[in-house]
Fold each of these.
Amino acid sequence: MKAREEDKPIFFSCGYSTCHWCHVMERESFEDLEVAALLNNYFVAVKVDREERPDVDHIYMAVCQAVTGQGGWPLTIVMTPEKKPFFAGTYLPKHAMWGRPGLLEVLSMLKEQWDQNRDKIEEIGEKLSQSLRPQTVKPEKKGQLSQATLEKAFSQLLHDFDPAYGGFGAAPKFPTPHNLLFLLRYWRRSEDKKAIAMVVKTLDAMSRGGIYDQLGFGFARYSTDNKWLAPHFEKMLYDNALLCYAYVEAYQCTADPDFARVAEEIITYVLRDMTNVGGGFYSAEDADSEGVEGKFYVWSHQEILAILGPELGELFADVYDVTPVGNFEGENIINLINYDLYDYAAKNNLDINALESQMAAAREKLYQVREQRIHPFKDDKILTAWNGLMVAALAKAARVLQREDYTQAAEQAVEFIFNKLTAADGKRLLARYRDGDAAYKGYVDDYAFLLWGLLEVYETTFNPKYLRQAIHISMDLKELFWDNWDGGFYFTGHDSEELLLRPKEIYDGAMPSGNSVAALALLKLARLTDNNEYNAMVEAMFTCFSAEVTHYPRAYTFFLLALDYYLSAPSHIVIAGDKEDTEVQAMLALARQRFMPETTVIYNDPEYQTDNSELIPVAAGQVAVGGRATGYICENFACQRPVQTLEEFKQYLEK
């Protein structure tokens, strides 16, 4: 007799659409009739996309890590009907192999134990569930986070830095752009050249490696080796957004045109391949095509010669590390790890301009041939959180690189979010949109990342509409997610589905946490609007998370961006005058091209004079003197006299 549904344990599998081993387990097991019969007869089978339901994923990934000492996807959990877990693992083949238990054997064993020892299993589930509940330890006093915390994080990053190839730690290597954003700010604060040297080395090495698509642009998720040569080939929107932001800031700090080029190429990739007709951005591209990981991206030596001809083909192969033996499973990943074009030209006594022209033509020809291959699967769902990150990157690149088309793309994406990813009553952001369907109440990441994006768009356009939207989102963020007792933001809103527990995340992994991004955005909003309530919230967050962050600050580098900002004295630049005035435009361009992360730059546009007076108290009264372009510079709680020449404005900035 079949068990009643309410008496069956729940078999839960969590993965994501571009996950290689999720596809393998799906083909081997979930599409297999024998496995399906066992699951359907004795379990309630649930399969979840972790990117649509990160709340569920966070909770049960913590279970897996607690039980097995590691995590990953596909995530496999078996739990009681009350959703209390008693088994956890990751990928399970159909039958035991490679030292891993087989899914059929595991399911049979669990069914037998459920039938014979249900009380014992429910006791295990209860104990596991209780162990997940946070044991709150309040710091003894406020203000435990300080400049010493920044210094400790720098020391830890320096210790883990790979001087040969950049990045931190051993393989596999993840880009983790917020480490680099932190180091740039540490360099500005301390003038320690080792900090910026780590950034330059890492960004240069990544852009020359196979983790970067040398033909079609964009970064893969991580490198399986320490050289950045062989990636896990899937491309994620969030990685490319954050890396674009990091390359733009590195360009501000170094004026290296290669950093600007890479940022522009990332945006070319996103706008070309990852943007829907309405302006929203897709989530990811798979690592596999035709069932083989990386097949779309790799080349044989023979292919290169056949497409480019023997002379250009041999030159390209020599430059881009293409050999008959191959550098990846008998094939070749195109890369510039051995030397860049300038090194190669110098070594071989070639004209650099001619070499660049030849290589550009060769890359374009190979790209066009590659376009005829079967493409990897594209995950075309649109996530509010990841779109918020891409909006921030586009807006930052737009103002630094002076690209109006990037501004338009950022604004279009914001419009898409508010039109398509907002509940019908207009009171709630939703997390996911696909094929006309928007679903799932937004998580803290959706609100925090969008808030950051809106502030970046405001700083690029100076349109008060975006500042008003940011203020509105900040109010919803507090109302839905704020912990009134201990501070910090819960991952889910108070109106969301009740789960085993309500997590509060601060760890900055491949993506920064919602709390970290919210802290920085709220501080920026505080300085723009002169609303000290935002500062008070972030101070409560510093208290809430200080024990975790102080223990190992290098794991919270985006949160430390907020701390660095908080510890910096307020600094404002207000530029006033007619937007068509070339002197106004030149002042804005100068201010935007400089790396001044602690400085708020405001354009007091006469068109928005009333809005600015209402929203931005610091801009009140700071208008064009005598109808001429005027710059106001205030720092360390003091304002300089207004300046009205570009040369004088430049001198103040250089100070």
Amino acid sequence: MKPATGATPLIALDAVALDTETTGLDTAKARIVQIGAIAISRGRILDGRQIEMLVDPEIAIPSASTRIHGITNAIVRNAPAFASAWTAVQAFVENGIIIGHAIGFDLSMLEREATRAGLSWKKPRSLCVRLLARLVQPGQTDLSLDAIAARLGIVIEDRHSALGDARAAAEIFVALLPKLQERGIRTLAEAERACMEQRAERETGHRAGWADPVSRPAPPSFRSVDPFAYRHRVGELMSSPPVVVVPSISVMDAIALMIARRISSLFVADPAEPGQPLDAYGIVTERDVMRLLASDSEQALATPVDGIASRPLASIREQAFAYRAVGRMDRLGIRHLAVRHEDGRLAGVVSARDLLKLRASAAINLDDTIEHAASPAEMAAAWAMLPGVADALIAEGIDARAIAEIVSEELCAMTRRAAILAEAEMAREGHGPPPCPFAVLVLGSGGRGESLLAADQDNAIVFAEGDPDGPVDRWFARLGEKIADLLDQSGVPYCKGGVMAKNALWRGSLGHWKERVADWIGRSRPQDLLNVDIFFDLRPVHGDLALGEALFAHAYELGHTRPDFAKLLGEQVAPGNPFTLFGGLQLEDGRIDLKLHGLFPVVAMARTLAIRHGIRARSTRERLEGLIGLDIGGDQDMTAMVSAHSVLLALLLAQQTRDLYAGLPVSNRVELVKLDKAQRTELKAALKALQPASDLVRDLMFG
């Protein structure tokens, strides 16, 4: 069980609900007579994982206490002492978060018993359902276990037994999860911070001698990563062009070809050429050949190679980072992955040998978990690993733009997986398969590959044909709703601006999308320009990817041919002045908004000029470098903007990881006091370099 961090969503927690029965309520004198615990994993109570132990208190149990829990001196006469019982309980709990009702009492009892027994004690990370219930049921005065359970419709069985009360606390916690999420309390750190703010309730416990039921959110201990896995892309490591053979050649000829080329796999297709859609190919590996020879050695060599080819291909994007290939091979138990271009055509192959250095490393914290997650909780658990990876990569000196691309990769994977789960849910509900080819698109920063840790949903759907509000459109409206709900439950919240495929403006047939884009470009109202900003960064992530790429290409070409449209876009690039009269930075509550004063101007400028000059790229860096390549703008100005963009991303990523672990709302505002002198100097230089953005757009619009 991996220890949770403050960024772990509550729905993804591995936790243990715990309760104790004691000889009394005075923590200074009482002793434990029973401990009960039950496991909770990713929003579900694990009935098969529970423990209940009697403990010899080594003092007489008062009759008043026996009347409550029914445990007598005779019952505990042969029970183990606390030291022995606690060893078993600790093994059961592992790294889980401790959950209970009025858990401060139980923690205090456990600490005092450990001290008496001469055992070391470290207060575990914990949550109290009494405090959590107050957050979602404000104004309620009765916060007893029975009252909270009754309000949530929970029937408590075996009341006043340690396991019975632990189970009740577990059921209350699970029932509170969606209610907490509705109130914006999604992560462990956010729950801890909200509970810490209930000072009166905590003070009452302190006066009674109880331990604090919750600890102040804290960052996790540093964990290193293998930077190679996050620095290099599959396209850099793959073998290309792929070797392709016709289906009719014999296994003997295939073996001879692999030996001659010193390769361990072949693709099979007719015609035998690369660059076709993936579904045209099968793959044969050296292991396939060895298995065939072991089963039928005499006739195997004459067998047509098509008979042992595996289909469909397991594949990965050419631009995916190497860590994703390692995780996918491990998950699927294979040694070769087909590599595909963005439009789904075969580009090459990557093998376990190519990734040998990475596969031997234990420091690849991200894997392929999202790609086979079966529920929002599993998706959330994978998504929660990102802040730690980002923090470690910043410490390793990895370019912040690469880190933002990794976050975007995971966001696109989340969207893709949500779409797959949504399709399956549609089928289970009797809505049938998709009525026509379609593509799910990620828009905005996710499409550009520049997502930060405050990402929300920006998605759309394009389908082959169908009228607005017709049967096909309504099918995709339901799909869009399910995608949005799954992402929200997984920790990627709904877009506040409504940029989601469940809304009619963000889905439609290819023909309807073309009309919509033409209208945006032709009329260019303020809202149209905002939509264009998001839309021109689109990236297809699921379904018929070529359909999404066709829409992207059409929109870019249309925008490129309308100089008046590009000019209107350029007029939106107006960075506010972040400096005070005396050269300081303008702050609000000690923070400066780096999106407003830095990211927005450079992103908008790069997008506008790329559209105007036909640079069909998505990322800000590629767009700026494309302009440099066309000798548009001075190299010094553009290079300074490329560097400034990286500086702002690095500062924002670092701030967002701190805020996530502290349970603070994640935003685009950086706390100046957290920056050292060198970082402040670097920030000022970056913001100064971006001040000419609007002038550059105007000057470079036509050459």
